Amino acid sequence: MFIQTEDTPNPAALKFLPGRAVLDSGVADFTSRDAAQRSPLARLLFEIDGVACVFLGSDFVTVTKSGDKTWQVLKPMVLGAVMDHFTSGAPVMEDGETGTEEEMNDDGADGEIVAQIKELIETRVRPAVAQDGGDIVYKGFKNGTVYLNLRGSCAGCPSSSATLKMGIENMLKHYVPEVLQVEAIA
User: Which of 113, 133, 141, 144 could form a disulfide with 180 if both were Cys (CB 3.0 to 4.6 A apart)?
Assistant: First the structure.
């Protein structure tokens, strides 16, 4: 088995591509060892000292390291754990579920506006951030503000605020005049 790695815009996150499907649908984001209990792969990765977050996508695993560790030390251990998991035949998720996304109340916002915002995020933004080992999820629209949740390599990325303001906010404002700003929320 050959596992490729790709740098991400976030220096604390590295994208691992095992050359096979990781999740059949959706994504899974684990920000702690306790949260990873339903994923044998994520549990295995959290056994490595220095792994801070694990994000699972359709064909990749993004691992975020803690600040005191280096990729020179962690990368071989993560590669070994990913390889061990996939050669063992164990499932990536025990329950088959990747989780559901909870949205905010859109505060009576026009359903057409919300649908247009969601479509732009799904078709233009999510595919682009997935290439960088991350994900972005619509959370709500209130009083002209679009609320988004950044995950995987996007969470904590130094360039994420520029991406939100210069890229996503400008695009949404262009196509949906009712959008005044974009904010990241947890």
Answer: 144
Token reading at 120: 């732009």
| DSSP 8-class letter at 22 | S
DSSP reduced 3-state for 149: strand
Phi/psi for 130 (5° steps) reads -65, -35
Query: What CATH number matches the domain at 111-184, 3.40.50.2300, 3.30.300.130, 1.20.140.10, 3.40.50.970?
Result: 3.30.300.130
Q: Is 0.85 topped by the overall pTM?
A: no
Ordered alpha helix ranges (H), the chain: 40-46, 71-88, 111-120, 126-131, 160-162, 170-175
Is residue 78 classed as helix, strand or coil in its secondary structure? helix
Task: Please check whether residue 64 is in contact with residue 48, taking contact to mean a CB–CB distance below 8 angstroms.
Answer: no
E-strand ranges in 123-163 read 134-142, 145-152
Per-residue exposure over 38-69, b if at least 16 CB sit within 10 Å of its own CB, e if not:
bbbbbbbbbebebbbbbbbbeebbbbbbeeeb
Does the 4-88 domain belong in CATH 3.20.20.70?
A: no
State pLDDT tens for residues 26-57.
Answer: 899 999 999 999 999 999 999 999 999 999 99
